[in-house]
Design goal:
By secondary structure, this protein is α+β, with helices and mostly antiparallel strands. It has one domain. The chain contains two helices and five strands. The protein has helices at residues 42-50, 54-65; strands spanning 6-7, 13-19, 24-29, 34-37, 68-70. The chain has a five-stranded antiparallel β-sheet with strand order 1-2-3-4-5, with helices on one face. A hairpin with a 5-residue loop joins strand 1 (6-7) and strand 2 (13-19). The longest helix is centred in the last third of the chain and has 12 residues, at 54-65. It is globular. The N and C termini lie far apart (24 Å).
């Protein structure tokens, strides 16, 4: 089943998606960067969806707690 990207209301983040099988958070930025965060807990993804400031949550929680890789071409 392909991941479904969710558009977010942010000047920094374009969209996010969660891979349930591999526990990966995929983040597409407005500047075209594409970052994958690995071994992300589903609860953190749910919290991310409920936050008012997606970029701040990623910077202050996700980026600090999970390994990531820049997949930008």
């Amino acid at each position: 089943m392909p991941m479904e990207y969710v558009q977010v209301n942010s000047q920094v983040i374009d969209s996010i998606a969660f891979d349930d099988v591999n526990n990966q958070l995929h983040v597409r930025y407005q500047n075209k960067d594409y970052i994958v965060f690995y071994e992300v807990k589903k609860a953190d993804y749910i919290a991310l969806q409920g936050t008012a400031n997606t970029a701040e949550f990623i910077d202050s929680k996700i980026a600090l707690d999970y390994r990531s890789e820049n997949m930008t071409d």
